Task: structure prediction
Amino acid sequence: MTLKEENHSEENLPATPHHEVFVAIDGFALLFDVLKSSGFQIVGPTIDQDAIVYDQIDSVDDLPKGWTDVQKPGLYRLNQRNDDKLFGYNVGPHSWKKYLFPPNVALSIGKKNEDGWEFQEAPDDPPKLAFLGVRACELAAIRIQDRVFVGGDYVDSTYQKRRQRILIIAVNCTQAAETCFCTSMDTGPRCTDGFDLALTELDDGFLVEASTPEGKAIVDQLITLEVTRKQQQSAELARQNAVDQIKKRMDTTEIRDLLMSNLEHARWDEVASRCLSCTNCTMVCPTCFCSSVEEVSDLAGENVERRRQWDSCFNLEFSYMNGGVVRDSTRSRYRQWMTHKLATWIDQFGTSGCVGCGRCISWCPVGIDLTEEVAAIRKDAP
Amino acid sequence: MISNASKMATDSPRSPSLWVPKTVVIRKITPEVENVATYHLAFTDADAAASYRFKPGQFNMLYMPGVGESAISISGDPESPELLDHTIRVAGNVTRGLTQLKPGDTLGLRGPFGSSWPMGQCVGRDVLLVTGGIGLPPLRPAIYQLLKRRQDFGNLHLLYGARSPDVLLHQNEFDDWKRSGLTIQKTVDRSVFGWKGNVGVVTLLLERLHSFDPSNTVLFCCGPEVMMRFVARTAFDRGLTAEQIWVSTERNMQCAVGLCGHCQLGPQFICKDGPVFRYDQIAPLLTVEGL
Ligand SMILES: Cc1cc2nc3c(=O)[nH]c(=O)nc-3n(C[C@H](O)[C@H](O)[C@H](O)COP(=O)(O)OP(=O)(O)OC[C@H]3O[C@@H](n4cnc5c(N)ncnc54)[C@H](O)[C@@H]3O)c2cc1C
Ligand code: SF4
Ligand code: SF4
Result:
């Protein structure tokens, strides 16, 4: 019919890494029951206060059926779709990091008795969670945080414990927002790795791909059909549609050296004149991991808990030391954020800290777009 | 594509929490100078005491429940870790809170953390220890090690500066150290009646220093960042290279294990990649304002 379809004739179909089955839309509700009976609480996309957020969901009815998002620098809006797609949007202000790296978590407890202080780990028994609707860039973000929290010499046990108790059900994007640039970061839009199940949404159901025994065990309890060639082709077209819609680019060639050799570039002053140091970009970013610890004690001061909260390099006190702050200007704080994300992260963890999800662009109140900041600095590079 | 490098770690059995301090009891508090005291700490748990080892230049996180945690270098002898010395200057909430405590009181301690002074580099070479004020305690463990195996090293010099004579630390040990083979020169910014020593910044001592072989010398420096930069510059003038200089840096720290993000300086986490760095690895970062 179309050129595209010809291009995707059978021999050109990219090999599906794992066996796929078809689950009809009517049978999708069963997934919720199977997950619950397998001991999982389900978290996934749902609408709250004019945005698609991640929260506990109970049934298909909680999904943003028939909604989509429109995103631009400094803008996020929901629109009604002209179909009943359950996953017809991209990423919103939340990310899965809130479940693996909670915004506020107890770390240790101190109790004072007659012998003095005694310390123990704070009780922590996170539930088994099924993440439903994880996008390719978000899989990449989880892999990045894995490196940060469990990939080095020091393992964060709160993250590790949660990470070991999740089941990941990914969804291949079939459209892209104006703010998406996963193709530049080599993280999407296709889900290739790091999930238990991956779905591709068609008009009448889902192609479901299991990549782990845990995922396979779930699929085995669903009502499935063999995938027809036509379904395979529609899925491929739908996934290609996302690729085609991605217009935003970031040139990452030698980006580490580019940024680190331009620490005094005039562009930092220019962006600082717009940036409000509001911390939004760091809160929505699925890989940002900075935190601070605070004391919570009872009135007598004999039972003290230490709690960890998300913090941001945009906060003035973040670099407080010896009665002053090291990064005392917005220029130095924006520069810290962006050079960490795109440059020094590579030194530290062997990967970029950015997955190209575009959240920081949409949720920046003044619409600062890091891809433009990189381009501005690159423009002046020799 | 980011590979699943950490698959192993996410699948491996659960790691112990890095956040639970061990209880230590204050055995003794030695007042040093105004607003500085050395706290001699011992673990209450025998296993913790038996397994604890530290290297010169490493630090602990000392925790005063309800107040907070502070990074404090260990200032005692690495070969006697049964009593852990921490020489602390009052700077804010935690360090002030500690002054309310007395022997027998308990605290939390996590550590040891961070890199250490490269003692192996000193063998067969002259060693210059250049420091100011509260920068001496983090070098004290290195001094103990150097003096214990004095014959392994060339000339040993301590160049120590302070605001005024009354805030020079560890004076009661200087005679011992001199007898054991450490040359000590002191200088103060402000002289007082009766002071017969040098007046001026510590770099002046380095400018005038003789009896060391620049081509076969290592220099350890601990102090404020500006001081370290000036010391390095003077050392270059005296013929040292950046590869012969080590400095101890500081930044706000919450976790001490590279997970909270606070202590970053460019690619380095001061807590786990530092605090001790060879100067060539850190100098380009120290000169960028607000990095
Ligand atoms: C590796 C290292 C070794 C150190 N060794 C010593 C030592 O041997 N003796 C000594 O007196 N001091 C040392 N310091 C400095 C000491 O950590 C600070 O003076 C202390 O944390 C101040 O805490 P506070 O609560 O009293 O002050 P506040 O001003 O109330 O500080 C609040 C919090 O900010 C952070 N903070 C403030 N200043 C610093 C700082 N300079 N470095 C790191 N975090 C800071 C801490 O988390 C502190 O709890 C060292 C710092 C580092 C990084
Ligand atoms: S820096 Fe921005 S685009 Fe990159 S991962 Fe974070 S939020 Fe997404
Ligand atoms: S870049 Fe935008 S979102 Fe980030 S701190 Fe500045 S104003 Fe806030």
